[in-house]
Amino acid sequence: MFSNFDFQAIIQALPYLFGQGMVFTLTLTVLSALGGLMLGTLLALARISGGRVLSTVATGYVNLMRTLPLVLVIFWFYFMVPYIGQWLLQESRPIKVGGFSSALLTFIMFEAAYFSEIMRGGIQSVARGQNAAGLALGLTGGQTMRYIVLPQVLRTMLPVLLTQTIVLFQDTSLVYVLSLTDFLGAASKIAQRDGRLVEMYCFAALVYFAICFLASQAVRHLQSRVAIIR
Amino acid sequence: MNYHWNWGIFWDASPEGAGTYADMLIGGLRITLAVSVLAWMIALTTGSAVGVLRSLPNPWLKRLANAYIELLRNIPLLVQLFLWYFVLPEIVPEAWGDWLKSLRDAPFYTAVIGLGLFMSARVAVQVSTGIAALPRGQMAAGLALGLTLPQTYRYVILPNAFRVILPPLTSETINTIKNSSVALTIGLAELTARARAIQEFSFQVFEAFTAATLIYLVINMIATLLMRMLERQMRIPGYGAK
Amino acid sequence: MQFCGFSQEYPVRKFARLSLLSLTLLMPGLVQAQSGGTLQKVKETGTITIGYRESSAPFSYLDDHQKPVGFAIDICMRIVEAVKAELKLPNLKVELTPVTSSNRIPLMANGTVDLECGSTTNNVDRQKQVSFTNTHFLTASIFVAKKSAGLHRIADLKGKTVVSTAGSTNIAQLNKVNAEQNLGINIIPGKDHAEGLLMVETGRAAAFVMDDVIIAGLVASSKDPALFANGDEAFSKPEPYGIMLRKDDPTFKALVDATTAKLYKAEGETLYTKWFMKPIPPKGINMNLPLTPAMKKALQTPSDNPDPASYGG
Q: Which of A64, C128, C210, C268 sits most deeply, having the most CB atoms within 10 A of its CB?
């Protein structure tokens, strides 16, 4: 019953919920979005203009990531990242990776697959003539991509990329399964410690809703502006 | 060497008493499929209804549909499952709450309903975009033929709209299967949870997760193939863009 | 349109081939042999990482500043001191990483944590993947239920929903008994111990199966301890808890064994009294568990034997 809803429990927990939890969630979201965008762009380029082997590997990777549940991918990477690090750096033992770095790597690797699909769609939508024009001006293929195509893609795809980032923001709540202290993790730790499930989960839902709703309204606004410019 | 490979682990008896570790995976697969199919049915029916509401001329119905979509789309699935599982029984009258909590398969029902409604918002968006993408003349033609508004929807608008949105619905089908794994947080023994349980009992992390990964690949491929077949079946010769 | 501004086409067969390919390429090459033990790793990185538990009071849990404390944490800090002395690294950095029953063993194997300080049962199965130092506690697996439910014996759980922590020895024992006695218990895995008792408190589960000492700690700090009653029948003999280390690392194990043996013999009882006979943070609860003869013997004659019988329990 809502009659014994304890607002005091929420107020007392605010510094922990936002000072630790939300900071973790936002840092993870922003860094994963940037990292995912970079890796995703590389994957998209590999698929479009890489050689056969490169484009095959990139396609396989993107499809694999898009077929697996994020929860499973999170488990995979949490246990695998130290071994991957060992292999990449040719170290003699698995490298130590903390919870945050491990989550960050997981989300970059996972979201890159989704960002790469957006970027690929964008790159293909830029008129072919522009590519030819760039080459005709004496730019190399790489320069054309870097100075002519990608800036346009980023601009037109910005709303879609931001929408994907909102999805990513929601997805970060799944680090709950690793017992990390993101916003939901913090709320659930307080909920269990104080037996305040109703208050904490309702409050968490409200905060997620407010942030995602406002952010998606802002994206919609941006979308209409971008649309006018084009 | 720190890790002891043992691919034969799946044929060992599981500590749960009944069957092998492989049987644990199969049991998990069954639950994943059952939850996904039931949730997808809820998502399709509820989502279509909301999508149609959103396409109607009445501004209040449109607002109602939009509110539903925004509410379900802007809260993470995990949080929604927690609301259904932990919060709902505490805020309904006590007798109902006790009944809910005493349900033996509470995680299963919670997962079906929570996931179904979560996905329904996404289906609703697809359906209403599908309807909006149809030429306006179709509605006018239906009404001019003397069909009522519901009849026009039933016989003209919806059949065409669904053909338009079949491809995006394919990826939502796969999303439903993938998202069912989130329900392991409320104790549902679905595929990912079972792979994790194998890891917990036998400590064979990589074997267990590899098996789960392969199973997800296979079921998602089958789901994609089935939807492809459906698309082909449904195609009206000469109609629709490809 | 939000999510599908791009093509959703999968060429299915090609996709299958590619996915399998990338999977097989990625995997086995990664998990390879490693050289150099924990001590060398700690020396090179200047850091030692301790895995702690969030709700294993009074062994390893969070106080009101969300900082890990407890009996096992105190023991581990002594081990850290010994490592500092051994490596002559007075400024050794200590990192704390939360672990759960479910992930502590893989995280130990993959190098995320170097010492796991909590309430981990030392048994033969686990020794295939990890190693343990001298026993720091003995505890049996029991169940707790609401007093009003009138559950006393294991058979009373028949057909009920029972929670136990995922990845614990307790859930394995519960599964085994359930299968052997054909009880038809609906077993739900909980994420951590606190969630287990909360499921009983909110009526989600009829009982929670866990080590008796963990149950005692959770019940004592719950909102209304009088609400709960323990079952009379145990699922196991008292089993040993140990601090967990990586397997096949004899130098590190020798150091940790020597340190804990010395500590348990000299100050074991003092440390025990601090955590089990006096008020502990965060709420100032007193566990009030006097030292048993078996426990006293375990501290006086330190051993890492996984066999419960060897402790005369």
A: C210
